[in-house]
Amino acid sequence: MNNLSIKELNMETWKDFERLVQKHNGIWGGCWCKSFHPKSPQKIESKEDARSYKLSLVNEDKSHAALVYDADTCVAWCQFGPPEELPNIMHKKEVESKMTMPDWRITCIFVDRDYRKKGLSLFALNGALELIKKSGGGVVESYPQDTEGKKVSNSFLYNGTKEIFEIAGFDYEGKKGKNHCIMRKII
Question: What is the pLDDT of residues 77-88, one digit of tens each?
Fold first, then answer.
């Protein structure tokens, strides 16, 4: 794992991101990491519709992610963006009643199944934090799974665990829903 690097999701890196998502059948049933974005103006009825919507967001610079590369292959990502770019968080009313609006949200971390359990979630998260810093920084908020020390299936860890956010220097701000929490860091 000595060849790891971070690149930002954009039109130049789209094909690499696309290959990883297609390898995993669209991610979580065809999400294409678009669920936290505003609702598409066109009805999304297929994985191809989801892919087209995500591509349009990237093309319009309305979708951001730190892509993790192992040499020339994209193997993971961490999605981030301002709240207006990622408004569809779960338990939104609960979060917004407890917290002031952040400058940035981190909503999704995904690692290729062939690269899991090698620390890439933390690598992707730190890559996103560096890209946020280059974009001016501010208050960064995320909603990882609070596993409370229990083993949890990867299929539920769409935004990593509380533990990796603690390692990255985030502060615990409270519970969110049943199994997630609110974590914040100032960059």
Answer: 999 999 999 999
At the top level of CATH, which class does the domain 4-186 belong to?
A: alpha beta
Nearest 5°: CA angle at 175, between 167 and 134? 45
21: closest CA among 75, 70, 88? 75
Instruction: Provide Rg for the chain, Cα atoms.
Output: 15
Q: Is residue 156 scored above 60 in pLDDT?
A: no
Q: How far apart are CA 18 and CA 33, in angstroms?
A: 11
The count of other CB atoms within 10 Å of the CB of residue 181 is 20
Q: Are 57 and 88 in contact (CB under 8 A)?
A: no
What's the predicted TM-score (pTM) here? 0.92
Which residues have a Cβ under 8 Å from the Cβ of 2 and sit 6 or more positions away? none
Tokens coding 170? 């985030």
Strands 73-81 and 64-70 turn out to be: antiparallel
> Which class for 33: exposed (0-12), middle (13-18), buried (19 or more C-beta within 10 A)?
buried
